[in-house]
Write a structure and sequence with these properties.
The chain is α/β, with parallel strands linked by helices. It is built from nine helices and ten strands. Strand 8, helix 7 and strand 9 form a beta-alpha-beta unit. The protein is globular. Magnesium ion binds next to strand 2. This is Glycerophosphodiester phosphodiesterase.
Length: 244
Amino acid sequence: MKTRIFAHRGASQYAPENTMPAFELAYEMNADGIETDVQLTKDHIPVLIHDENVRRTTNGIGFVQDYTLQEIIQLDAGSWFSSSFTNTSIVTLEKFLQWISPKSLKLNLELKNNVIDYKNLESIVYNMVKDYGLLERTVFSSFNPKSMERMYKLDPAANTAFLTTSKIRRLTQFTRSIGCNGLHIKYRILSSQLVEECRKTGLDLRVFTVNRPAQMDRCYKFKCAGLFTDVPDFALKQRSSLPN
Ligand code: G3P
Ligand code: MG
């Protein structure tokens, strides 16, 4: 099985992260899937944005959770990146699912609830994905282990992955114990030992954020289940140059 290439926040090297232009570009580049970050507005609508505060990626200030949907979609989420993306807006999860549904792309919905543990984020996101018939194509992930336990309770068959940047003791056993069948790690903790442990425990190992050719090659050599990259075009080129 080839390592699947997920566009990290869309093709985020080329267009503002987590916006439709970044997702469209990932699709045009032939990425295998898209990773995006989900949070809730004040009126409990799931929207795609990485930071808890809108300041870095929009012309607004303050927290996502303090904006209603009507307010947050007025923000300009493109100008910070380049003037050619002026007036690009924040996308709702619903719009994203509508867009991706007829395409063959995989999805990784990262629940951004490790800083603010949004109430019912798991069930809101899960039910929407289910309504669109996209459960099989979706991996739900989080840095918050409690969230993954809640997701397991909702549906033990859902694809879930624990996200981590550090190699804690018994990481693979811990990941299994919270009900996940995937582990998403920062590139710097990738090792042959961890690859082997994941294989033994039946965990799908995916790696973030992999932007350099040598890093990509290592993920391919280890036959990781997936990698997340801001440059899916490079990752595809690099993968196609490998011997079969
Ligand atoms: O889901 C992989 C990766 O996106 C996790 O880190 O901070 O880029 O959301 P971050
Ligand atoms: Mg993410």
